[in-house]
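Fold this sequence, please.
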Amino acid sequence: MTELTISVEDNPVPVVLVFAARMRRFASSPAFERIAGRLAGTVTLQSTATPETVTIEFKQGHIHLYRRAPEHSLTVYLDLDTGEVKRISHAWRHPLMALRVRTLMRDYSPRWQDSAKHFWQAASQLQGIPPGVKIHCLDDNSTLELGTPESAMEIEGTAGNLAALFGGELILADAILKKKIATAGRMQHMAVFSEATMMNLLGAL
């Protein structure tokens, strides 16, 4: 099977960048790659909470994302934050594609440990980032240390929230405010780390 390629329109809006980054992460999953590689056609993702839309064009292993929504396209109404599909319109016109797109919207994220290592490899090069990070998973009481242990920033959360944080689904500052993630460390380190998670969300890290 040809390796998936993913592109975006010129001057993309943030929501397009977010979904492009999400698909690039999911593309490491053989299941995602297999399903996406079989799709041909256009689908529009419509937020159930805001007017935001993302249109995805599938063509012979290539995925192109843009904002404009074509008329009468297969439209998937979903929570843009979680990817949860609420309903699909025009599914009767493209029943097989609707089924495959619903399957494609599942979470294909890697384990939080793998996402954390991948994130740290890029984020550790940023100016002002802490010299190390100690991550504690509440689910199984496991710990992962990256970088230099001394003066390391500490991050704690469930496996799901850690996977979302390092997988580009959460911004650290917002996750702290919503009590999804707990941290300890210097304020300036947290600010830079939060900026890195925002860059990751937009696929810019």
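The mean pLDDT is 87. The chain has two domains: 5-104, 112-201.
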